[in-house]
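Our working data are protein records whose layout never changes between entries. The record below serves as our worked example for the rest of this section:
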Amino acid sequence: MKITKKITAIILALVVIMAATVGCSDGKRFFNITTGGTGGTYYPVGGALAEVLSNNVENLAATAQAGNASVANCNLILNHETESAFVQNNVAYWAYEGIGSFEGKKVENVRGVASLYPEAIQLVALKDSGINSVEDLKGKKVSVGEQGSGVDFDVQNIFNAHGLTYEDVQIDYLSFSEAAQKIKDKQIDAAFVTAGYPTSSIIDISLAREINIVPIAEEKIDKMIEKSPYYAKAVIPAGTYQGQDADIVTATTMAMWVVDEQVDEALVYDVTKALWENRDSLEAAHEKGKSVTIDTALDGMAIPLHPGAEKYYKEQGLIK
């Protein structure tokens, strides 16, 4: 069985390489973007990007393929089973450094193309909870995501920046939907959610209870960025959630586009250029497309850029 699986993996890798080299029967070259599940954000944004590339890069046939999101996509890159993929930048960092889920198997061939849009770390509490800062969580019941998840990891970094530990609060490991229900039932006081905003679980709470989206102090975010370069600052605009009257500063990870380092430099240059010269098509295709801007293309870029992408950003003056 193991031998069969190895043979299958080798065949898949060869198919990707042959497709990249030989291309389509009509002279076009295949280019794959592995995304996430069809019910998520990665898949429709990836589909819109594939259309942009196919329409604006000569002799290229780009396709978006549903995938199992960040960790699985990094493993596909590792095994040369996809040319490019969408991943969270913190997962890309873990993969490149060989830590967390990738301990013992560094994905040294993963390279960055662009940071796409923020996946904000959102701290939600009930309005009458008295929680207006991270420090106010002391002694409170708090959901930190599922154990071992990216959210769990994010919260530990936030706590470290504030001089807190999990021993200072009453921790509950919950999914977003479970946390939303427990907040509504007043069984917990607050929850951390890392996701693109507006997030359905937080909307769910806001429709039943008055909520407070708690900011993270900018100097604490600076500490996080200094220690973990895949973080960036973000603002959740006023009015994102019912009852949210002010902009909220928080930390964010970024959804990013990565490629296998083996992909040709000229091709990566062309697809990077096509992305930024046609981003209005992404904006028209999906709500999250509005957040995809060249101004944040390098935010939280904690892995090396592919030389093709680097060349484009140097031409645009984003890199010296």
